[in-house]
Amino acid sequence: MAGIQQEVKDQILEITFQMNEKNTVDAEFGKEFAAILGEAEKNSAVRGLIIRGSNGFFSNGFEPNSFVGTSKNEIEAVIGPAFRICGQVMNLPFPVAMVMNGHSMGYGAILSLYGDFRYMQSKQARFGFPEINIGLPIPAAPALMLQDIVGRKLTRDMILGKALKADQALEAGILDAVFDDDESMMNRARKDISALFKFARSTVRMNREMMYARYKKTIPEAIEHDIELASVAIMAAAGQEGLGALKEGRRPDFSKVD
User: Fold this and answer.
1) 136 is in which domain, residue-wise?
2) What percent of the chain has a predicted confidence (pLDDT) above 70?
């Protein structure tokens, strides 16, 4: 099992990532998370979703061991479901809150962009896209969404490796609020989502559809492009050097790779 805990409280599905020490993502994660979301979408008792991390990590991205010395099919078995989950979250019929109670890097940051509300721990947490540091490009789908939130200039800096502290992410418009402890974040998330229960379920669903309407065609297309591009980039010399260095706990050396 991937280690995803779930519980419905007061019509809100609360999901907690407990995959491993840094909540990194592997192939099992994609299968399990997609199934959980699929069931929630069909469950009329669920009117909202909260996703949070554990161990000081919302998610630190993909598991490097899944990509070093593996085949294209094996890589896409990890990346494909994980990226498609983002589209699945975007199309859910109820509001989604991301409680980033720890580092949100790489895939963790990507997934969070598909939430309607985002909150982050004030201490020892970073939000960013470190892909360039390991020889990989940022996917197009989150790059598009990030530009709409923070603008092109900060997006440029972030895809070139700049990670944000919680207060910086709040100032940039990525976050709704910053808190010192998990319980305060969860209470705020529950409050913001449950405040929408006074409205008709169908109206909330349609308003969420309208908010993301401009992405309805572009994001699914971008996700499929991202899956193909990521697998090629991971198997390339730069990707293997960067991921190998990450796995071995050393600095990558790109001086001899294109």
Assistant:
1) 4-180
2) 100
Question: Residues, the chain, total?
Answer: 258
Q: What are phi and psi of 145, to 5 degrees?
A: -65, -40
Residue 54 covered by a domain: yes
The pLDDT tens digits of the residues spanning 37-54 come to 999 999 999 999 999 999
Task: List, edge to edge, every strand of the sheet that includes 103-105.
Answer: 57-59, 103-105, 126-128, 164-165
Domain count, the chain: 1
Measure the CA–CA gap between 100 and 121, rounded to whole angstroms.
6
Q: Would residue 138 count as lying in a domain?
A: yes
Q: What is the CATH number of the domain that holds 36?
A: 3.90.226.10
* DSSP per-residue string spanning 51-96: EE-BTTEEE--B-GGGTTT--HHHHHHHHHHHHHHHHHHHT-SS-E
Q: Where are the alpha helices (DSSP H) in 126-200?
A: 140-150, 152-159, 166-172, 182-194
How many whole angstroms separate alpha carbon 38 and alpha carbon 35? 5
Q: Flag whether 212 is in a domain.
A: no
Residue 205 lies inside a defined structural domain of this protein: no
pTM check: above 0.90 = yes
Task: Give residue-wise pLDDT tens across range 51-68.
Answer: 999 999 999 999 988 898
Q: How far apart are CA 151 and CA 136, in angstroms?
A: 22
